[in-house]
Structures are given as structure tokens and as C-alpha cells.
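[audit] Reproducing an earlier prediction to check determinism. Same input, same settings, fresh worker. If the C-alpha cells differ from the archived copy the diff job will pick it up downstream; this log only records the rerun itself.
[audit] input (362 residues):
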Amino acid sequence: MAGVQRIQLNNLNINLKNALIVGIIIAKNSPRKIGSKKKNGDSRGVMSFTLRDSRVDTINADVWGSEYFVITFYERFLVGDVVEISSPKICVKNGDNEFYRPQVSSPFYLSLNEGTSDVGIFGGETYSTYLPLLHIPTKPCSGYCGLAEVVKLQENENTYVDLLVVVKSVKPAKTIKTKAGTDMSVRSIEIMDNTTPAALILDVFDIDTIQRAEEWRPLESVLFVADARVSFRGRRAAAQLCARSVVTHQPHTPDAEALRLYIRNQTNTRGWEAGAWSSWSGERACAASVAQVRDRLSNGAAPFCAALHALLTHLDLDDLVNNTFHDLNSEELRVRFADHTGELNANIPITVLEDALGHSIN
């Protein structure tokens, strides 16, 4: 294209008018409708994505246009696509807005407007050199937070953590109602690491990431999650992906490989989870009633071990069928136990259920 100059992210400046930028999309956020309308009545929309063109250099980009244009753009370009951007507006970052974006290296951001800037799939000879960049975390892996620390966090607004975890299970996507009454898709990912046997739920709301999660394999896929937001279900900590989050699947780092091998070695033994809990807690699994277990949980206790003597009163096999679309060895079934002091809901690994009942999952 005449007059267009290809520029690396580390050479950007606000005076460039006809830059051509090539990079790989490493994150993106869902489109949002803007309240104001154009004279013809069309609603306006905006979405954002994060681009990388080297191991170090990253930048955020906003896409503005009609609601239809923005939604189409979101559906067309996916995380992992190598794209070329022509004639973007190069803007200096505003500190107030950056809190809700992924952390990036560039002091600028790109503004792409319908009819002014152009984005397409890059097909040049250097295409393959960009693909490994998808597996490099956007933040130093040394600063991640272990799940043992996350489960002890007290409820507080705007708590963000970096996580290096292994996928334990991928739940089916479902639709929920927001407070505004609109439908929203969500998928829950159960994650684990080497700091505690306690698994944590990571909720995913972005459609692109929900679809990417289909490729994540229980006990094999490692994720580095930059800036996951800590939320609470009752008193129990969970995590959510948000506009600040960047998920790196199978990060190319020594820590990630070490974690994957650790989890593989731990889970190769049938019944490994019960042994891991005992070893981690450092306490014997003393006999307890349902009421005693519930009291200890209601007081916000850290995870603990107990020997429960109770009747299995609820076993929903339909739930088992709905949950077993991935790896059977990592799936759980919701059950209910009861004794003379009350009832207790629980999740039980399918492998433990097979041993207890003497029947295979089939």
C-alpha cells in the first residue's frame, strides 16, 4: 500500500499517520454497545484486543464503529490470529482507563475506527515467527500467586492475582441471567496447582475464551492467567476472567513444565487426592459428624480432613452423564450424605465412586 510504513511496536510514536503493524492477537474482550446513536439510528459499539509482535512488546487496541461492525470484527478475528493493521490512530495511554485493560509494555494504545483503519489476516513470509509468541506470558511467571494463598484471601473488592495452574476439569458452558435481565454465557474451569489439593473455580464469560477452553485437556493443559479477579461464593474464594485478564495456554516456561510434570506424577496413582489432602493438612482425619463438619466450614476454616460416617442419600446419575464430556478420571459427581445430625452436600470423584460401589462408570 503506497505511503504505508511497517513499524514495530517498540518504534511507535503519535506522529505516525500511515503505520502498518503486524502482530498476533493474545487476548480480546467482548463488544459493548455505546449509548449514543448516529443520526441514522444505528447504535455504536466498541471492543478491544491485545497485540504482540515480540517476546517483550505488547499493546492494546480499541475498535470503534457501528454495533454490527464491531460484533462482526469480534467474530472474525480470534486469539491466535496474526493480523496486519493499517493506518491506526496512535494514542498516549490514559491512566484512568488502563485499570480495565491488560497490562502491556507500550506507552501507547491503538484506536481503530470503522472506515478509517483496516485490519486483515497477515499472510507474509514471517507469519510462523509470530506463533510462538502466543505461549509467552505477558507478566513474569515468578510473581504468580499459589492457590493456597488465594483460598485464604478475605472478601475484598478489586483483588487481582496472577495464577500458574493446571486444568483439572472443564465444565459445560451454560447461560445465566445477569442482574440487568440479559442472558450471558459462562463456563467454569476447575484449576489446581502444587500448593494445595484444593481446586479453585475459574469462571470464563468471554465467548472466544469459552470456545478456546474446548481444547484444554484435564491434568495436561497448563494456564498462566495474568490478572484474574478474585470473587467469592459465600465465603469461598473463586476466580474470574475479566477485561484485565490474559490467558496463556501451555506457557513456554520452566515453571509451567515443572508444574505439569508434578501434577502428572501426583495423579498417576488411583485415590491420590485423599492422600494429598492428608499430607497437605498435616492432621489425621478424625471422625466427625455432619453437624461438626458444617460448623467448621461455616466458621470460615481453611480446608481440612475428616472421617465422615454417613449414609449416601442422593446420587444423581443424570448429573454424571452431563458432566462426563471430557476426561472421566478428573470428573466429579454431586452427592449428598446424611447422619443423625443432618445432611451435607459434597462432590465425589468418579474414580472414588467406582471403588466404593464396586461398579465401573460404564
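[audit] rerun output stored. Observation attached for the diff report: The longest strand covers residues 19-37.
[audit] end
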